[in-house]
Amino acid sequence: QAEVPVIGGPVTYTATGRIYYLLSESTWRDAEAQAVKLGGHLATIRSKAEQDWIINTFYGWGGSTNRSLWIGLNDSQTEGRFVWTSGEPVTYTNWRTGEPDNADGKENYAEMVIDGERRGQPDFGQWNDLVGRESGRAGLVEITPRYVWIKWPASEGGNDHFYTLTAVPYENWFHAEAEAVLLGGHLVSINSAEEQAFLEATFLAGHSRSNIYWIGLNDVVSEGTFIWSSGEAVTYTNWAPWEPNDNIPGEDAVVMNWHYGLGEGRYGQWNDWIAADPPRHVRYWYRGVVEAPEPRTTLMKISGADVVEGETNVCRTGTSWIDYDGDSYTDLFISVYGGPNLLYRNRGDGAFEKVKTGNLVTDPACCLGATWGDYNNDGNLDVFVPDLACGRLNSLYQGTASGSFIKVAVWPFTQDEARSATAAWADYDRDGFLDLFVVANAPNQFNLLYHNRGDGTFGKVLQGSIANEVTFSACATWADYDNDGDPDLFVTSESVGPNRLYRNDGKGSFVKITQGPLVTEGGASRGCAWGDYDNDGDLDLFVANVGKNYLYRNLGNGTFEKISTGPIVRDTAFCVACCWGDYDNDGFLDLFVANFNREGNFLYHNNGDGTFTKVTEGSVVEDKGRSRGCAWGDYDNDGFLDLFVTNDTGEPNFLYRAIPNLNHWLKVRLIGTLSNRAAIGAKVRALATIAGKRMWQLREISGGTGYGSQNALEAHFGLRDATAVEVLRIEWPSGIVQEYHGVSADQIITVTEPPVLNALGITSPAQFELILSSGGGFTYQIERTVDLHTWTPVVLANNVNGLVQVVDGVPDSPAHAFYRAVEVPLSGPGLAAWWPANGTPQDRLGAYNARLHGGVAFVPGVFGKAFNINVNGGWIDTMAPPITNVDNWTFEAWVFWRGLDPLGKHRNHFLFHIGHTGKNGYGLEIPDVVKCREQTSLRGREGMAHVIYGGINEFPTGYYPRPNIWTHLVLVRSGGVLHLYANGSEVFSLKTDDPRPPGEPLLIGYQGAEETFDGIVDEPRVWSRALTDLEVRQIYRVGALQLALPR
């Protein structure tokens, strides 16, 4: 293919961090080939937001409004089956009406129509299929910054170093070298023919055979004297004939494969090239080959987003990563001094949208930092907002199931007018309800401790030194530093006296600690954060000061050792906030410190031996601002911690997204039942073998850390080379200890606190009674066994919120028996039919038994067995209609779809249908290639879920189910609207006007083999009411945990 020049870029889509280049006009294949050379593909478009950004960014680029864009969508392999060249699943399409039409049987490649002639027309920005040989379109290249590290092992003659490519191409050698340094290495030094051969086999194979790469060789310092950027001696060269020749002024750097890449010369040879600022007629963009002894995670700065650039006219102080709407994506809250607080909802596509309505974001505030927790245990996060202004009251906002907030007038918050700086939640008396400590930031004032009474009100604690000392405090954070099961409290002193530590005596009172460096220093302290940085099983403490900072190592006996060496305690600055987080997933907590006086922030990398290395390069430490708050949170759910830093008035905030390395990870989210619902105070421990060493890690879920800030309410573990956690132990505030063994790495799991099952004893000759204790309204199956192998269901306990008496009428009176309570998906009122598929098609509730047809078999599913349906035919139907009401009903099931037919012969995947083919039929289907080829309205939509309403009318949902993975699908009709959910999140809704109920038996699969569903269906259930968003998420959560843990 011909070389296609770059005419625009790089441009970063700040919502996702992906980087784009615009090519000059060419054919589709030449554009894709050039995109691969640059390290990406023609663009993949995943959402309307991304589509709109592309139009706004590239329409009229360079003054030209007469071009459309090649994108990566094509059906060149199988006619009618469109795929992205990136290999990503199709999750969004925007075809022009009547397209794709495969005119003349040759149109296989997609363009986005944004030429000026269509401006203002309905099809502007929509897609069209073309032959691909048209040369009047510009290729839009998309690169996802990521690193795939390849090790050259010593066992194969290598050096045990790691190699990768820079995330993006550069026309400037110095920029490529700078990225290599950030990754912990340099552009590659090639020291032998064997290393050259390894690089050729690794980076110049297949589609990359003609690519050109920067390497570390250069003569920047002295013309004609070439050296490696790593400082290694030059012991091997592989110059092309007549090279190096310094043919163009400034050829001071070296590229590999240049002559071959341009169609001449031998494979892999070297050429000197312009290191910086090439003339416009010879501008080329190359990725660099990076070599590092050990891969390093980089934190990439995200610019341009409203969460960073917006609201700079106010002073932003503390920050919190929280999932306030329960959609499994971490949202962002920013405290504001002198204006309304800020809340940004994570859209799930890498972008945030500002929440503009509600008291939480419209009330005036003078807040240095809020704290989040579920004080009333209703499953919705609440937030307490302190106010520093004189004469102003603090505020408590109660979260609702809809994601909104209600400001509640709770005594004594309605009368205490203390100048409050920050606050932190903790259940100090372990009664299952979060209590609150509020920091007074003024002389001659007491700090405040409020006890949660469990009825929505609080009592003010008046006894003890914790509430009766005159202080000028800055920050407080709770932690169980002595591992006795209850939270203790550390409070920093800004100007009056030393810092303070209060030990919880386990009886509802606190003992002030008066000896040791932890409580004899202070007076200029601001933020503080607990973390087990040395992995010895107890929490250590860092304190940020104006001047030098403090690090105290917990000795495990109730005392602390002050660390006196290393940059972490010797660097001097106006330090305000701090937060622990294992940003490179190597198994050891690193530390970030936010500094106020534009001195640059600090990042300390944990060496794993009790010492730290100060990071000195990269935006995260080079950006200067008046920083106030900081917190770690994985907002894109890739398992690597991202960092947000707030700044003062007139300055943008800082958002840094982690670019993953090779290291493994595990994230654990917790739901309390007997403990507080947010699980604040829970300790999570993980045992794994990392770099040949078995070690435990500890994380404690915190109700406030740093300085008015809060890390995400989840336990994040870096695992380095460990592919599984050998033991995952959860120590709940209630005292319950829960363990899982052999938990696979690289996943997010949500664990619900188990119930307590106590025996009352035999109350009659064949009757045994137990008491089940839990909270939160969950559903449990009580099971019995005599051999700890085969478990027999006894009774289903629905909506448990307190104590429930369980009676087992044991007909065979065994000599002994064991009982357990297992959480199962929500059931109870409104559940009309439930087919567990455990070896029979019977309805668990007994009213609507099903029938199997066409060889449907039973295979392992999410819960026990499941129905296996395949393309050879097969379906399931019921003998009576399980839905008889017009509105307010639900169908749900776990589904494992095997995907589109690779042979392109299957017509349709009919998942279910209920009601006849007249106006009142409903269903869900996934069209395959054949049907989309036959039916004009479905072209380009193969693999997209379609809702059936009105018998035979298909409505595209825009949702593409992922193949070969379990997905929980739910279809709800509520108030005349159909809602489709996938894995707990709503993906589609449609207004209906059907006046009649479905009224006929349920059909799963389809009678005709060419239309039946190809996959597995587990736990299909029908409800005679509409499930709420929260109920849908609860059902999904239970199944997701089953899939995440060892089977």
Core attributes:
single chain, about 1050 residues, mainly beta, Mannose-Binding Protein A, Chain A, Methylamine Dehydrogenase, Chain H, 8-stranded mixed β-sheet
Report on the structure:
The structure is a single chain. Strands 1, 2, 3, 4, 5, 6, 7 and 8 form an eight-stranded mixed sheet that branches. Strands 9, 10, 11, 12, 13, 14, 15 and 16 form an eight-stranded mixed sheet that branches. The chain folds into six domains: 6-143, Mannose-Binding Protein A, subunit A (Mannose-Binding Protein A, Chain A, Roll), CATH 3.10.100; 150-295, Mannose-Binding Protein A, Chain A (Roll), CATH 3.10.100.10; 299-671, Integrin alpha, N-terminal (Methylamine Dehydrogenase, Chain H), CATH 2.130.10; 682-750, no CATH class; 759-823, Immunoglobulin-like (Sandwich), CATH 2.60.40; 831-851 and 861-1044, Jelly Rolls (Sandwich). The two termini are 50 Å apart. It is globular and about 95 Å long. A hairpin with an 8-residue loop joins strand 4 (68-74) and strand 5. With 1047 residues, the protein is mainly beta.
Provide a quick synopsis of the model.
This protein is mainly beta.
Secondary-structure blueprint of this entry?
Elements: E1 6-13, E2 18-26, H1 28-37, E3 41-42, H2 48-58, E4 68-74, E5 83-84, E6 109-112, E7 127-130, E8 137-143, E9 150-151, E10 162-165, H3 173-182, E11 186-187, H4 193-203, E12 213-218, E13 227-228, E14 253-256, H5 258-261, E15 270-273, E16 287-292, E17 298-302, H6 306-309, E18 315-322, E19 331-337, E20 342-346, E21 352-354, H7 359-362, E22 371-373, E23 382-385, E24 395-399, E25 405-408, E26 420-426, E27 435-440, E28 445-446, E29 448-452, E30 458-460, E31 470-471, E32 473-479, E33 488-493, E34 500-504, E35 510-513, E36 525-531, E37 540-548, E38 550-554, E39 560-562, H8 567-570, E40 572-581, E41 590-595, E42 602-606, E43 612-614, H9 619-622, E44 627-633, E45 642-647, E46 654-659, E47 664-671, E48 683-690, E49 693-700, E50 715-720, E51 724-731, E52 737-744, E53 747-752, E54 756-764, E55 767-785, E56 792-809, E57 818-824, E58 831-834, E59 850-853, E60 857-860, E61 865-869, E62 874-878, E63 889-897, E64 908-914, E65 922-927, H10 929-934, E66 946-949, E67 954-956, E68 966-974, E69 977-982, E70 985-991, ...
Parallel strand pairs: 4-8, 12-16, 47-53
Antiparallel strand pairs: 1-2, 2-8, 3-8, 4-5, 4-6, 6-7, 9-10, 10-16, 11-16, 12-13, 12-14, 14-15, 17-46, 18-19, 19-20, 20-21, 22-23, 23-24, 24-25, 26-27, 27-29, 28-31, 29-30, 32-33, 33-34, 34-35, 36-37, 37-38, 37-40, 38-39, 40-41, 41-42, 42-43, 44-45, 45-46, 47-50, 48-49, 48-51, 51-52, 54-55, ...
